[in-house]
Amino acid sequence: MWFVVFLLIFSSSIAHEVITQVKKETAVVVEARYPDGMPFSYESYEVYSPDNSKIPFAKGRTDRNGRIIFLPDKKGVWIVKAFSSDGHGFVKRIDIKDLENKRENSSDRFARIVAGAVITGGLFFLIGILLRRKR
Amino acid sequence: MHIPDGFLSPKTYIPAYVIASGLWIYGIKKMKKELEDKTVPFLSVMAAFSFVISLIMVPIPGGSSGHAVGIGLLSVIFGYWTAFIVLSVVFFLQAVMFGDGGITTFPVNAVIMGFVGGITSYYVYRFLRKINNTFALFLAGYMGLLISAFFTAVVLGIQPYIAHNKDGNPLFFPFDLSITVPAVLVPHLFIGIGEGILTVVGWNIYRRIYDGKD
């Protein structure tokens, strides 16, 4: 009898069972791609919560589609770091109060490449003319 | 090959800013001396071209991607000081406009790709051009990119040793030299071929334009 009582009292503390719960929640999804559209797949990442910038809240590898998925448990600025061993990656600050789906448009990128090329070319043309005048 | 913000410790990028500042000041003086009037239009075109090609990512065998830079071409035509200044401006604009490469890591990218890569291309071409001009141009482009890739891998790979917490966990880039050197160098063995071809083709276009005028 005493043995049964002993087992009942301590059964919860000595058990090794892990209780699981499957449910639907809204998560933050960070999707990472190279500019050519190739997903940043299976690369290391770390997520830091607003209250602890030293110990990662989550760490792992991006999925096949280059996604990092986590569920913030408090408001504030979360930091997501992702690295590939060949030096690609990013450090992104995400304010979960101001969360919206931001994705770079390919036509925006093209426009900025053209603008950058014009600025660079024009700048060195001006530098060249200025240097010529100084002589 | 552009190292983004957050990958390098202040122990790396603060000294890099000091070194790069000295090189930028001296480089502008050298550029002023070396730049010829007739090459100014070609320089502006090359600067714009370098901006564009270093943003075009090409898929590489093994699942990564990379891009040419134009180090070799700029360096053999204008000299390594001008190449360094041009690439520094290009990297700065790319960091500001695209977040491609960082603001903190900007001097590291500029010194490694613009200066170390440029000086390598310049001297490879100078030493080999008497043997065969086309081969020298190809190797100038190839080696300029490969040496830049090597130093990028070294700078990334030393981060876990120089910036870690009490438990030894890296605070910035987490992979050490044994991983970064092969991971960065192997793709650039392929990208270097493109950079080498670009140097040969670009040089021939340049000679055709300016030999025609002379």
Which terms summarize this structure?
heterodimer, A: 135 residues, alpha+beta, 4-stranded antiparallel sheet, two-stranded antiparallel ribbon, elongated, B: 214 residues, mainly alpha, 72% helix, 3% strand, Cobalamin biosynthesis protein CbiM (chain B), transmembrane helix (chain B)
Explained architecture:
The complex is a heterodimer of chains A (about 140) and B (about 210). Chain A is of the alpha+beta class. Chain A has two helices and six strands, in the order H-E-E-E-E-E-E-H. Chain A has helices at about 1-15, 105-135; strands at about 30, 45-50, 60, 65-70, 75-85, 90-95. Chain A is elongated. In chain A, about 20% of the residues are buried. With about 210 residues, chain B is mainly α. Chain B has helices at about 10-35, 40-55, 70-80, 80-100, 105-130, 135-155, 160, 175-214; strands at about 60, 65. Chain B has a two-stranded antiparallel sheet. In chain B, strand 1 (about 60) and strand 2 (about 65) form a beta hairpin. In chain B, helix 1 crosses helix 4 (about 80-100), helix 3 (about 70-80) runs antiparallel to helix 4 and helix 6 packs antiparallel against helix 8. Chain B is globular. The termini of chain B are far apart. Classes of the chains: A alpha+beta (about 140), B mainly alpha (about 210).
